[in-house]
Amino acid sequence: MKLTPALTLLDKPDNIITMKDKFLEDYKNIKVQSLYGCPVMIVRDAFALLPEELEFIKNIEYQKKVANDDTYKAPYVVQVSKSQNVLQDYKKLKNVREKINEYAGKYIDDIISVENEFDMVQSWVSKTVPKTGHHNHHHKGALFSIVYYVQADKSEFRFDTKLNFLTRSFNFDYNIKEYNIFNSLEVDLKPTTGDMLIFPGYIEHSAKNLDTKDKYILGANYFIRGDVGVYDNTTLVKNV
After folding, report:
1. 240 close to 195: Cβ distance less than 8 angstroms
2. Are 65 and 128 in contact (CB under 8 A)?
3. Structural domain includes residue 189
4. What pTM does this model have?
5. Domain membership of residue 215 as a residue range
6. Structural domain total, the chain
7. C-alpha closest to that of 186 among 206, 169, 168, 172
8. How confident is the model at residue 95 (pLDDT cuts 50, 70, 90)?
9. Which of 19, 100, 173, 177 has its CA 20 to 30 A from that of 224?
10. Order of strands across the sheet with 186-189?
């Protein structure tokens, strides 16, 4: 089942659930979408890279992966940076790391709204050749992930689940009247250069490069830092 029409970053405001009024005041480019009951932050034009930052990312050292993907019925070629901590390893990307962390902080403080501290535990660059796609996957060991679109004039990002509001408890074959974010198993977004997505790492997702030139994204995973739980509730887990 596919959400029809697909959700895009250009949807009308009444198709977006805004969690707090201050998003409209402080960050007019942020929308928060409830997806399968999970918060997904959609940021249009999060920030622009400097020419030297863009050039550095394009010329970073990559490892090459080639495989076939049944999702899009076509071969895909994705190259991932050899460094799995590009935003920590390279001083030239220091400002980019700070900007991404700023939006991560908004997600922590205002969406999941917890006082725990988080760290960026992985960061990488992914390059996808034209007219191909990235296979369906999720991010292990990440409480939430960020994707920033370095160069992606025409792209598609797809969320995929087997368990939505209808199928989580009773896996019936429903007669869908109209597809929406609650009864669909797939949701498509149309991010472009400068946009950013923040979402729980366990949500399955895939991507397409619909353009005639290479697509570049920056990815980052975040995990909780320190002890978790409450001593008085006998739930404290010590980070040893």
Report:
1. no
2. no
3. yes
4. 0.81
5. 13-224
6. 1
7. 206
8. very high
9. 19
10. 132-137, 204-209, 155-160, 186-189
